[in-house]
Design a protein that fits this description.
heterodimer, A: alpha/beta, 5-stranded parallel sheet, 4-stranded mixed sheet, 22 helices, B: alpha/beta, Rossmann fold, Helicase, Ruva Protein, domain 3, 2 domains, 8 helices, about 45% helix, about 10% strand, elongated
Chain lengths: ~475, ~220
C-alpha cells in the first residue's frame, strides 16, 4: 500500500517541483513499508543525513499532505537513513513534527543518536480537505518570496525607525490608498528589508488572495535580462502588472541599467494607476540615488519617503534581547549591553556578535556570562588586522614599564630595563612571525640566543610571578587591539 | 651529475584529519557542522598562511563525502555569477579580493541563500569590520558567525613539518626543524617553502635532510 502511495507521490511531486529539485532530492529517496499498525504509514530512506534534513524541512509536509489526500487520513511518515537506521525498532523512534525545522534542529543537537538515525512524523489523523486549502495558501505564499521571519511583532521600534514603522503599518492596513509608493531609505543593515517584509506578511495575513511579490532590485534586473534572452517581455510585463503589492528592495542597484529602469517605470505607472501598492527601499534619499532617471526619481516623491536611522544604544540592546528571545537564548542585560556598546553601526553585526557568543558558550558547554562573552568577542571587537611590528611592541612595552624606547636597544643590563626588554622580545616572538635573529637585530643587534634566553626566562618566570603574568596579559591585549 | 626531479607534489589533499587544530577546536567543530547541516553562514579570518584555504577545502570535501553539494572558489576567480544550486555549501576564499562585480554576485548569494538553502563559508585576512568591500556586503559578512583562525604554537608547527615529511617519505632530522624555528621566519608559508627547497635538494643530491644540507642551501642563498 505504501509503495503504491509513494509512486503516486512521486508522480505528483514531479509535476509540482522543478526538475532539478525533483531529481536532486525526491528521486534519491527510497520507500519501504512503514510500521503504522492499523493506520497507513510510509517509511522513506534518504541516502545521507544532508538529504534527510533537507527533505524533512522542505518536502515532508507536502508528502504528508499528499498522503492525507491518498489515504483520507494523514499517514505516519518516517524519514530514515539506511543500514543502522533500518534495524532500529519503531517503538524507539522519537516522534517529531515536520513543520518546525527549528525545533527539529534543536532536538537534533540534543539527541543526535536518535534523530540522526531517523525521524518520525506522526500527526493526529485529520480530514484531508482543510489541509488542501492550507497547501494552496502555502503555495501562494511561496510565490511572494517573503520571509516569514520578518514581521511587525519582532521588529524592535525606537526613535530610529518609529516614523517608518508607523507609515508601514498604515500601508499594510490600506494598501494602494494611503502612501503610494512608500519609499524607505537608510544605511545598510538597519532593517529596511525587515520592515518591508513585515508589510508584505501583514498584507498577506489580512488577505491571502493578494498577489504579492518581494523582489530584490538585482533579481528584477535578472528578470529583465532573462526576458530579453527568451524574448518574453510580454510575460514579464503581464506578471509585474498583475501584482497587488510589489516590494522592491535596494533600488540603488538600478544604477545606469537603462532598460531595467524603463521596464520598472512602465510597471510603476501601471500599478499606481490601478491603485496597487508599491514599496521601495534604497540606501539614500531618492534625489541622491546615482544613475537613476529623473522621471523615476520624481515619481518616488508621489507617496511618502521615510528614513530609518541607525539605532541608539537602548534600541540596540532591545534588538539583541528580541533576537535572543526568538532563538530561545537566555541573554542577560549586561551581555546585551556589552555587545550593543561595542558594535554601533548596524544591526547585522550585532547579530553576528550574538551568534558568536552563543556558539562559544555552546562549544564550551557553559552558560552565557559577561566574562565568557568578552572572551568570545575578543577577535570580533578587534577591528584591525594586527600587523604588529617590533617597533610598536617596543614602544608599547616601554610605555607600560615607563622606560625609554631607546633602552630597548641599549646595552644596559640593570633589572628595571633588562626585564621589560625581555618581555618585549617574548611578545615579539609570540605575536609576529619574525625569525629570532630578526628580533635580536631589532633589539640593538643582539644575538638570536639572547632572544631565545629572554623568551625562556619570561615563559618560566610568568608561571611563578602573578604580576608578570598579569603584565603579559594586559600587554598582549593592548597590542592586539 | 645532477639528478633531475619531477615536479610532482605528494602532499595529501587538505582534509580535517591533516589539519593541526591547535587552539581552533571551536572553529573546526563549527565547520564540521556546516558540512552536513543548514547552519548559519560562517567567516573565518586570519593572517596569510594560517590555514584558511586548507579549512575551506577540508569542509567542502567533508560536505561532498556526506552527500551535500559543495564547492570552494578562490575570490579572484569569482565572476558576475555564483552557483545557484540548491543546498550548496559555497565556500569563497579570501573575500577581500573580490572584484566589484563579484561583490555583487556574493551580495546576491547572501540574499538568495535562504530560499536556495545554501550555506556560505567565507575566508578573509581580517575581521569583517576592516574588510575593503561594499558596505552592504561587508555588513552581511558581519552577520555571519565569525572566527579568527588562531596561529599555531611552535611545537604545533614542528608537528606539521614532521607530518608532511612523513607523508612525503622523507627522513627529517628534528635538529633541522628546531633550527628553522630558532633561526627562520616562523609562519607556515615560509616554513613550507624551506621544506620544499630541502625536499628538492635532498632528492637531487640523494642526501637526507640534515642540518649540513640546510646550511649548504643557505650558503647558496636560501632565505629562511
Amino acid at each position: 500500500m505504501s509503495r503504491e502511495f509513494w509512486s503516486y507521490c512521486l508522480s505528483q511531486l514531479e509535476q509540482e517541483l522543478p526538475p532539478q529539485q525533483f531529481n536532486t532530492w525526491i528521486k534519491t529517496l527510497h520507500a519501504e513499508d512503514g510500521d503504522g499498525g492499523e493506520s497507513p504509514a510510509l517509511r522513506l530512506i534518504a541516502p545521507n543525513r544532508f538529504v534527510q534534513q533537507w527533505v524533512r524541512e522542505r518536502y515532508m509536509r507536502r508528502i504528508v499532505e499528499l498522503g492525507a489526500a491518498f489515504f483520507g487520513v494523514e499517514p505516519a511518515c518516517e524519514l530514515a537513513l539506511p543500514a543502522a537506521g533500518a534495524a532500529r525498532p519503531a517503538a524507539a523512534l522519537r516522534p517529531a513534527t515536520v513543520s518546525a525545522p527549528r525545533e527539529a534542529a534543536v532536538a537534533q543537537t540534543e539527541t543526535p543518536a536518535v534523530s540522526m538515525a531517523s525521524d518520525v512524523a506522526k500527526l493526529p489523523p485529520r480530514r484531508a480537505e482543510p489541509e488542501r486549502a492550507v497547501s494552496s495558501e502555502a503555495a501562494a505564499y511561496d510565490k511572494t518570496r517573503l520571509n516569514r521571519d520578518f514581521t511587525f511583532n519582532n521588529l524592535v521600534t525606537g526613535r530610529a525607525n518609529d516614523l517608518a514603522r508607523a507609515a508601514a503599518m498604515q500601508v499594510s492596513q490600506n494598501p494602494g490608498s494611503s502612501y503610494n509608493p512608500l519609499f524607505v531609505y537608510g544605511g545598510v543593515g538597519l532593517g529596511k528589508t525587515h520592515l518591508i517584509h513585515a508589510i508584505g506578511n501583514e498584507i498577506f495575513r489580512r488577505n491571502p488572495r493578494a498577489v504579492i511579490r518581494y523582489v530584490h532590485a538585482e533579481d528584477y534586473y535578472a528578470d529583465v535580462v532573462r526576458a530579453y534572452q527568451q524574448k518574453s517581455f510580454d510575460v514579464f510585463k503581464r506578471y509585474y502588472r498583475s501584482l497587488d503589492l510589489l516590494l522592491i528592495d535596494d533600488i540603488q542597484f538600478f544604477n545606469n541599467k537603462n532598460r531595467t529602469q524603463e521596464e520598472f517605470f512602465h510597471a510603476f505607472n501601471a500599478l499606481t494607476e490601478a491603485k496597487k501598492q508599491i514599496i521601495i527601499t534604497c540606501d539614500t534619499y531618492p534625489k541622491d540615488v546615482q544613475g537613476l532617471e529623473d522621471r523615476l526619481i520624481s515619481r518616488f516623491d508621489w507617496g511618502l519617503t521615510v528614513q530609518i536611522e541607525p539605532p541608539e544604544l537602548e534600541m540596540r540592546v532591545a534588538i539583541l534581547k528580541k533576537k535572543a528571545e526568538a532563538d530561545r537564548i537566555d541573554l542577560s542585560d549586561d551581555v546585551a549591553f556589552l555587545i550593543a556598546k561595542n558594535l554601533r553601526s548596524n544591526v547585522r553585526e550585532l547579530e553576528g556578535a550574538l551568534k558568536k557568543v552563543v556558539a562559544y558558550v555552546r562549544f564550551h558547554g557553559k552558560e552565557i556570562t559577561l566574562e565568557l562573552a568578552k572572551e568570545a568577542l575578543k577577535d570580533l571587537l578587534n577591528a584591525h588586522n594586527r600587523q604588529l611590528t617590533t617597533e610598536h611592541i617596543q614602544k608599547t612595552v616601554a610605555d607600560y614599564y615607563k622606560i625609554k624606547v631607546a633602552d630597548m636597544h641599549s646595552k644596559k643590563r640593570t633589572r628595571v630595563i633588562a626585564r621589560p626588554r625581555q618581555v618585549a622580545m617574548f611578545l615579539a616572538k609570540d605575536l609576529t612571525p619574525l625569525s629570532l635573529p630578526a628580533i635580536g637585530e631589532a633589539f640593538g643587534g643582539r644575538d638570536h640566543t639572547t632572544v631565545l634566553h629572554a623568551c625562556r626566562t619570561i615563559a618560566e618566570l610568568r608561571l611563578g610571578d602573578p604580576q608578570l603574568n598579569h603584565d603579559l596579559h594586559v600587554l598582549t591585549q593592548v597590542l592586539r587591539g | 651529475m645532477k639528478q633531475l626531479v619531477l615536479d610532482i607534489t605528494k602532499d595529501a589533499p587538505p582534509r580535517f584529519d591533516n589539519f593541526i587544530v591547535g587552539a581552533n577546536a571551536a572553529l573546526v567543530a563549527a565547520l564540521r557542522e556546516r558540512a552536513d547541516t543548514l547552519a548559519d553562514h560562517l567567516l573565518l579570518w586570519g593572517a596569510h598562511g594560517c590555514g584558511r584555504s586548507h579549512l575551506l577545502e577540508a569542509t567542502t570535501a567533508a560536505a561532498r563525502d556526506g552527500g551535500r553539494p559543495a564547492i570552494a572558489i578562490d575570490a579572484r576567480e569569482a565572476g558576475a555569477c555564483l552557483p545557484e544550486d540548491e543546498g550548496l555549501l559555497l565556500a569563497i576564499d579570501n573575500v577581500g579580493a573580490l572584484s566589484e562585480t563579484a561583490q555583487i554576485a556574493l551580495f546576491n548569494s547572501f540574499n538568495r541563500a535562504g530560499s536556495l538553502g545554501q550555506t556560505l563559508l567565507l575566508s578573509a585576512d581580517r575581521p569583517p569590520l576592516g574588510l575593503p568591500l561594499r558596505e552592504d556586503l561587508r555588513t552581511r559578512i558581519g552577520q555571519c558567525l565569525v572566527f579568527e583562525v588562531l596561529p599555531l604554537a611552535d611545537d604545533e608547527r614542528a608537528s606539521i613539518l614532521h607530518g608532511m615529511a612523513e607523508r612525503r617519505g622523507l627522513r627529517l632530522d628534528t635538529d633541522v626543524v628546531a633550527y628553522l624555528l630558532r633561526h627562520g621566519r616562523r609562519d607556515m608559508p615560509s616554513l613550507l617553502a624551506v621544506m620544499d627547497a630541502l625536499d628538492a635538494s635532498s632528492l637531487e643530491q640523494k642526501r637526507p635532510i640534515t642540518l649540513p644540507l640546510l646550511r649548504e642551501l643557505m650558503q647558496r642563498g636560501l632565505d629562511i
